[in-house]
Amino acid sequence: MKRILSLTTVFAICGTFLFAQNAIDLQVQLDKASGKISPHMWGIFFEDINMGADGGIYAELVKNRSFEFDHPMMGWKRLGNVPEGTFLIVNDGRRKGNPRSLKIHKAADIKIGLQNEGFRGMGVKQGNDYEFSLLYRQASPDMQVKVELLNEDDKVIGTAALLLSQGASWQTGSVTFTSLETSPKGKLNVWFEGAGDVEADMLSLFPKDTWKGRSKGLRKDMVQLLADMNPDFLRFPGGCIVEGRDLANRFQWKKTVGPIEERELIINRWNTEFNHRLTPDYFQTFGLGFYEYFLLAEDIGAEAVPILNCGMACQFNTGEVVPLDELDEYVQDALDLIEFANGDTSTPWGKLRAEMGHPEPFYLKMLGVGNENWGPQYIERLAVFQKILQEKHPEIEIIASSGTDPEGERFEFLDGKLRAMNIDIVDEHYYRPPAWFLSSADRYDDYDRNGPKIFAGEYASHTTRPNGPGRSTWEAALSEAAFLTGLERNGDVVTMASYAPLFGHVDGWQWSPDLIWVDNLNVYGTPSYHVQKLYSLHKGTDILPVKRDGQNVTGQDSLYASAVYDANTKDLIIKLVNYNDQPIDANFQLDTKRKINGDATKITLANESLDVANSLEEPLKIQPQTTQVTYKGKTIKDTFLPYSFTVIKVPVK
């Protein structure tokens, strides 16, 4: 029986055939590098948004462990028939950073306790060990703490007991036990057995299986996805939390170092930022503080890039500013941070770093002053920082804000002022629809090579409004891949680039899309994650011109291309984005006297539907596909799939 094709199908097949037969010729100037790729080109932007730190990468499972939330018992529920006066919140102003504690008075041995709900539940895994700990002081003996781990059906899946010692001073108690089941929405019961009086604080539950096995450390699976990117830098702690809704709630790094129990909690500014995503239980405990940020950067081989408040609160909120004659405290914070990161252990802040476990310096090289600040008031304050930092620490490069948008009157004002100041690095941000990213692939082709370097500090392609229920679709990621060819082609001017925000918790987000999504037990990278990871893993050292009819490949026939040479591995690396719904044939003519090893690696991200996205159910729906290919001579001939981003790595002799 003959198969009869419809006329539409015939035209579609013929169109594809004809399209694929019209091979496009591109020239790669392998022997004529146009510049050097920045050594810290591709990195990570971290902000505690979307439960990125508490309830996220910081592995603490207990919410409001120190009773310091605005409502001291938020996250806790009383268990048993509790007589009046049995549980009292005590506020002792003599305790640095953490004045509140819970006083338990039991005249008789009755069964009473507390239950903690965790951060949208507690994610626990079968067979894993968990450490419960607390600070306490007990006036009289005989009190014991019994802990129970419950699953979402209130079944006990782990238990342990801890006998409390008598003493007038605060002491630490801890016990480790094993979870008998996996539960994504577990809870913790803490029973106080016996009679007497005890004060308790810092009631905590951590998995023992943390990143690098550090006690009370970071969630291993989330850090692993960062390490897998091989990032060049880690920018922290944000983001708008640097500024705060007002200056009283700005990020103050000095309050995030030293003993964990002395770090002063503050409300997270994303707590009430969006009326449709109110998160009243979102606070910053600073268990993940500046020391831990520096340590994380070191762990994953990234340069630490801290950003400090410049004396201005978020201009979308209160817009508070510190008078110029009262800016000394803010500038001193910057000087002391450099000492904390790089200073000798004989210095006060270098000594604290050593006491925390890191006598060697962190070798800080860059420092951001302000985040998304704008206007003449920002320039005035930045000038004060610049003068003093250049005098005292000329080795530190200063990163300055170009505001919230990549164009417009605000951007033009700042760009002109920052260039006149000879600032080291200008931080540009782009939250735009895919069309903007596609049309801006040539944005830096004509930037002044003798002016400031550029930090693409926050980029993300949005298919919906930034604070709506957006997804990181393949359409968004592919448009970013096209834009990044322009960043790579101008890697001598664009010195750094990072997607933002980094993490989103499916049960606690405020802003989307995000690079990586998590729940209490799982984590996955979006298509945008895989795009930047491919750039980061195939960075190269030298920029190679890729031309089509003498022009950079910046969207002609919806194609985008860049190329680099890696002097360390002796590889030519070509990146091509095909933003067409049809495959294309392309011939890369290699202008070189060197020999090409025909055996190459081809890595492809592709999907014929621009609307698809990864998810918890299908975390690898879009992922790189790697094949080994052979090219002959000095022409790389290949076919590139519809809506695809392809990396070709060819050894060069």
What is the correct CATH architecture of the largest domain? Alpha-Beta Barrel
CATH class value of the largest domain: Alpha Beta
For the largest beta sheet, what order do the strands appear in spatially?
3-15-18-19-20-21-22-23
The stretches of 5 or more residues where confidence is low (pLDDT under 50) are 1-20
CATH topology of the largest domain: TIM Barrel
| Sheet of most strands | 8 strands, parallel
What is the domain tally? 3
Q: Provide mean pLDDT, rounded.
A: 94
User: Looking at this structure, what is the CATH superfamily of the largest domain?
Assistant: Glycosidases
Topology summary:
Layout: H1 7-21, E1 24-28, E2 35-36, E3 44-45, E4 76-79, E5 87-91, E6 100-106, E7 112-116, E8 122-124, E9 129-138, E10 144-150, E11 156-163, E12 167-178, E13 183-193, E14 196-207, H2 220-228, E15 233-236, E16 266-267, E17 283-284, H3 290-299, E18 303-308, H4 328-342, H5 348-355, E19 366-369, H6 376-392, E20 397-401, H7 409-420, E21 425-432, H8 434-439, E22 453-461, H9 474-489, E23 494-499, E24 503-505, E25 516-518, E26 523-525, H10 527-537, E27 542-544, E28 546-548, E29 551-552, E30 559-566, E31 571-578, E32 584-590, E33 599-606, E34 625-630, E35 635-640, E36 644-651
Parallel strand pairs: 1-32, 3-15, 15-18, 18-19, 19-20, 20-21, 21-22, 22-23, 24-25
Antiparallel strand pairs: 1-28, 2-27, 4-7, 5-6, 6-14, 7-13, 8-13, 9-12, 9-14, 10-11, 10-13, 16-17, 25-26, 27-30, 28-29, 30-31, 31-36, 32-35, 33-34, 33-36
